[in-house]
Amino acid sequence: IGAGAATIALAGAAVGIGNVLSSLIHSVARNPSLAKQSFGYAILGFALTEAIALFAPMMAFLISFVFRSHKKS
Protein backbone atom coordinates (compact mmCIF):
# COMPACT_ATOMS: atom_id res chain seq x y z
CA ILE A 1 0.00 0.00 0.00
CA GLY A 2 2.84 2.37 0.84
CA ALA A 3 4.61 1.70 -2.44
CA GLY A 4 1.43 2.39 -4.35
CA ALA A 5 0.94 5.63 -2.48
CA ALA A 6 4.52 6.67 -3.26
CA THR A 7 3.91 6.34 -6.99
CA ILE A 8 1.08 8.89 -6.87
CA ALA A 9 3.86 11.48 -7.10
CA LEU A 10 4.24 10.54 -10.76
CA ALA A 11 0.90 12.17 -11.49
CA GLY A 12 2.12 15.35 -9.83
CA ALA A 13 5.27 15.26 -11.90
CA ALA A 14 3.23 14.92 -15.08
CA VAL A 15 1.20 17.98 -14.10
CA GLY A 16 4.42 19.86 -13.34
CA ILE A 17 5.93 19.04 -16.72
CA GLY A 18 2.71 20.15 -18.41
CA ASN A 19 2.85 23.45 -16.51
CA VAL A 20 6.48 24.03 -17.54
CA LEU A 21 5.79 23.42 -21.20
CA SER A 22 2.56 25.46 -21.24
CA SER A 23 4.41 28.36 -19.61
CA LEU A 24 7.06 28.09 -22.32
CA ILE A 25 4.42 28.30 -25.04
CA HIS A 26 2.79 31.32 -23.39
CA SER A 27 6.08 33.14 -22.91
CA VAL A 28 7.19 32.58 -26.51
CA ALA A 29 3.79 33.74 -27.75
CA ARG A 30 4.12 36.94 -25.71
CA ASN A 31 7.77 37.69 -26.53
CA PRO A 32 9.27 35.67 -29.41
CA SER A 33 12.63 37.45 -29.14
CA LEU A 34 13.31 35.70 -25.81
CA ALA A 35 12.48 32.24 -27.14
CA LYS A 36 16.04 30.91 -26.82
CA GLN A 37 16.44 32.07 -23.21
CA SER A 38 12.96 30.86 -22.26
CA PHE A 39 13.73 27.45 -23.75
CA GLY A 40 16.80 27.14 -21.53
CA TYR A 41 14.75 27.91 -18.45
CA ALA A 42 12.07 25.46 -19.58
CA ILE A 43 14.63 22.67 -19.97
CA LEU A 44 15.92 23.43 -16.46
CA GLY A 45 12.39 23.30 -15.07
CA PHE A 46 11.69 20.08 -16.94
CA ALA A 47 14.87 18.47 -15.58
CA LEU A 48 14.11 19.45 -11.99
CA THR A 49 10.53 18.22 -12.26
CA GLU A 50 11.70 14.96 -13.79
CA ALA A 51 14.23 14.51 -10.98
CA ILE A 52 11.41 14.72 -8.46
CA ALA A 53 9.51 12.16 -10.53
CA LEU A 54 12.46 9.76 -10.30
CA PHE A 55 12.41 9.94 -6.50
CA ALA A 56 8.91 8.43 -6.38
CA PRO A 57 9.81 5.01 -7.86
CA MET A 58 12.99 5.01 -5.79
CA MET A 59 10.94 5.43 -2.63
CA ALA A 60 8.48 2.80 -3.83
CA PHE A 61 11.30 0.29 -4.32
CA LEU A 62 12.77 1.17 -0.94
CA ILE A 63 9.42 0.60 0.72
CA SER A 64 8.84 -2.64 -1.21
CA PHE A 65 12.20 -4.34 -0.83
CA VAL A 66 14.31 -2.77 1.91
CA PHE A 67 11.70 -2.39 4.59
CA ARG A 68 10.16 -5.77 3.77
CA SER A 69 13.52 -7.50 4.28
CA HIS A 70 13.81 -6.00 7.77
CA LYS A 71 10.48 -7.54 8.77
CA LYS A 72 11.66 -11.09 7.91
CA SER A 73 14.76 -10.99 10.12
| Quaternary structure state of the chains depicted | single chain
Please give the radius of gyration in angstroms: 18 Å
Looking at the structure, what is the overall shape?
elongated
> What class do helices, strands and sheet pairing give?
mainly alpha
Mean pLDDT across every amino acid position: 85
Number of strands: 0
**What share of the residues does DSSP label as strand, in percent?**
under 5%
| Largest beta-sheet details | none
Residue ranges: pLDDT <50 for 5 or more in a row?
none
Helix segment count? Answer: 3
The topology string of helices and strands comes to HHH
Q: What percentage of residues falls in helices of 4 or more residues? A: over 70%
User: Terminal Cα separation, in Å?
Assistant: 21 Å
Organism: Aegilops tauschii subsp. strangulata (Goatgrass)
Function: This protein is one of the chains of the nonenzymatic membrane component (F0) of mitochondrial ATPase.
Membrane topology: Multi-pass membrane protein
Transmembrane segments: 38-67
Secondary-structure map:
Elements: H1 2-6, H2 9-30, H3 35-72
Description:
The protein is elongated. Helix 2 packs antiparallel against helix 3 (about 35-70). It has three helices and no strands. The protein has a domain at about 1-10 and about 40-65. It has helices at about 1-5, 10-30, 35-70. The two termini are about 20 Å apart. With about 70 residues, it is mainly α. Keywords: ATP-binding, CF(0), Hydrogen ion transport, Ion transport, Lipid-binding, Membrane, Mitochondrion, Nucleotide-binding, Transmembrane, Transmembrane helix, Transport. This protein is one of the chains of the nonenzymatic membrane component (F0) of mitochondrial ATPase.
